Amino acid sequence: MKEKMRCCLFLLLSLILSVRAWDDDDLEVFDVVEEVNQNFYEFLGISQDASQSDIKSAFKRLTLKLHPDKNDSPDADVQFRNLVSIHNILKDPGKREKYNEVLVNGLPNWRSAVYYYRHVRKMGLAEGSIILFIIITFGQYAVGWAAYLEKRFTAEQILNSRGKKSKKSGFDTGIAEILDMLPKPSIKDTLPFQIPRGIWWTITAIPLAISELKRRRLEEIEKKRRKKKMEEEERLRAEREVEQVSTARRRRAFVPPARDCLLDPGAEPEEAAPVPVPVKPSPPVISGGLWTDDDLAELVRLVKKYPPGAAERWERIAEAMCRSVPEVTHMAAKLKENCYKLPGQDTVEETPQEPPKKVKTRKAEETSGGNWTQTQQKALEAALAKSPKGSSGDRWQKIANAVPGKTKEECMQRCKYLSELLRKQKQKEEEEMQNKNAEDNDKETEQESLN
């Protein structure tokens, strides 16, 4: 195969060199000679050894005679064009010498490469494309057969060498079968058949490509919609967390107003003139909120204020703290187990004028992110609202930059601590609700049995 390629390259190179042996002047002389098809000197009416002045005089004389404005012949344009071409050849000494050589040797015949090159130069784009298409088709078919014959020859050599070594009977039949299995080149594998197949495949593939593009577009839209939905859910979850933290903070700063129920239950109210007093709406009862250190200290103070045996003791304490009775009794039982001591405190201050200070253990400080002031808590809530989950960049670093005096890790611990408190409080409420429902069911069962 390499030798064949070398031969083709050598042949092509020889054709190119043979064409390059003729310059543009030679080609121009050949074209004019073939177009005029008459002796130039006879056309001008001069001898072959005429001088340049004789050629110029003959050209002027024939110009006045053959000009289309003065010549009534149907082919006046052709005659005048030939006259101009002949004058351009003979007035140049080099081209005149080449023309004299053509008169002696004649034009190149079909055996010369320049013969075909001259004809190709005169072809138009359509004619050249058709001829090139035909040449490529035959060349493609010939190359296919050459490749097939080479594969067949190589296979025969390999199989014959193996057959001689094995010396098995009936091996020639096997060789013939294997050689017949080689695919032979077909005219259907050439350009006249490949181009229509390619066009048909392109036309049939366009609907499939459009449907595939539509499917991918729908997948991208669905992906964006899911991502947007997840971001919206994260934002709502963050807003709920911030709202819960804000509620706990407002409850911590809430001071319950004085009520008549806090008076001594044994004292009799003095009679007074009926004066219309505007009734203030009682604050709403908070259920399921976080218990801060201030709330625990207030509960201890009220428990000591209303000792056991006082009338409606737990109702008064619950009303003073704006919480439900089960919630207050549950927290009071836990404080009683700890001897009414707050976490991290040895003694409980009994002076009601000063609120108890927040004292947290080292473990609580680590889990809650250290001591937090009211200003830092407000800044944390605002930063959480501005930077919800799913926002671009480092979310916790932005939140830490917005909270003065706190690091990124402390902010993360604080949020985790608050979320854990809320979760435990909700779990506690659910357990209390289940116990209450169980007690109600037991009472109903006993009532039914008594009836």
What do these coordinates show?
This protein is mostly helical and 451 residues long. 69% of the residues lie in helices and 0% in strands. It is built from 17 helices and no strands. Helix 12 (313-321) packs across helix 13. The termini are far apart. Mean pLDDT is 76; it is low at 168-172, 258-280 and 347-353.
Instruction: Find the count of extended strands (DSSP E, 2+ residues).
Output: 0
User: What is the C-alpha radius of gyration, as a whole number of Å?
Assistant: 56 Å
Annotation field: number of helices: 17
Average predicted confidence as pLDDT: 76
- Beta fraction of the residues? under 5%
Q: Based on CA inertia axes, which overall geometry fits? A: elongated
Query: Helix share of residues?
Result: 55-70%
* Main beta sheet strand tally, sense and closure: none
Our measurement of the CA-to-CA distance between the termini, rounded to an integer number of angstroms, reads 112 Å
Order of helices and strands: HHHHHHHHHHHHHHHHH
Which class do the helix and strand fractions yield? mainly alpha
Poorly predicted segments:
168-172, 258-280, 347-353
